[in-house]
Amino acid sequence: MRGQPKNISLPRRLIIDLMHASMGVPFVSLSRSLNIRPLLEARAGAMAPAGWAAMLVKAFALVAKDEPVLRTVYAKWPWPTLYELPNSVASVAIARLENGEECVMPQRIAAPEAMALAAVDMEIRRAKTAAVADVPMFRKVMRVTRLPLPLRRLFWAVGLNFGRQRGNWFGSFAVSSVAAYGGGELHPITPGPFIVSYGLVEPGQTIHVVIRWDHRVTDAAPIARVLTRLEQVLNTEIAAELRSAGAKPIRAVGT
User: Fold this and answer.
1) In this predicted structure, what is the pLDDT of residue 251?
2) What percent of the chain is modeled with pLDDT above 90?
3) Residue 252 binned pLDDT confidence (cut-offs 50, 70, 90)
4) How far apart are CA 128 and CA 140, in angstroms?
5) Would you call 176 exposed, middle or buried from its count of C-beta atoms within 10 A (0-12, 13-18, 19+)?
């Protein structure tokens, strides 16, 4: 059967490099439906509610303030070690349309636990609509992706295997979801160490959350505790910030 060869675009080359870097990471996953009724009530009353990705990013980073393991990465150089970062760095998968091609690019958000929820949301929304050249993280990854394969492998190896560089290149956790396209239980692959994905809000006022993690860094019991704490943070700190940001105006009903 004769087909037609197609060139590999830069965004697709980025994903190929990402998959190569993710090979060999011993991922384990845990999923749970979180009851988020207080969060939904606060979001329904907010004038400009933050997106779900922003809320999950900040909530996970707030949990990580008290759970140092969520800021810990596995690094191989100069010898295998666990390296604890001083603060969280999120890597959010941004779905975009570039030159007619659907693609995904990573947006880096440093220390989201210290940012206003609206600011986290703005960074994510800007990454969806701004030109690639106007987003610093996109420019950075595209510069490396344009390099010949041996140089790309070298840059990725340095970013992956030195603890200090993991936060700069890959972050301490990633967030990815297909909820905007109809939902589903997504199990994404990245170099880790932690990946959070979420689905659609379900009729029982719950949302299904999956955490995948590098088993070299931690075990299932701490992650089960993290999911419990994540539910609490969404329903308290995040809900409170939504309420403080301003309520929707109440329309007068004519009689």
Assistant:
1) 52
2) 82
3) very low
4) 16
5) buried
